[in-house]
Amino acid sequence: MNAFTAYKACVPVEWSSNLYITLVRGIPGTRRLHRRTLEALRLRKCNRTVVRWNTPTVRGMLQQVKRLVVIETEEMNKARKQEAESHLALRSPLVVSHLASANNSTQ
Fold first, then answer.
1. So what's the pLDDT on residue 75?
2. Helix H or strand E segment including 53
């Protein structure tokens, strides 16, 4: 279990003022009630994130479609974005020089 998963497990959703909701499973093949709930949450495509107020109504809707979505608090979302940025920053750029390989093959 990585650090983000451990952090996600210890932060209660009820304490956050906003919820970041991401649709991670496809809509085709789901029940009509679930499709209507996702439509009410304004989730139409996979891997799209919306921000909603943390109210009992929204939490009830999320309970209904919990297997289709990922719910994050503001802190969890910021931590995930920072982790993704740091992961990309560690990679060094790939430099390809065609001149050096052409000179080696002719000699």
1. 79
2. strand 49-53
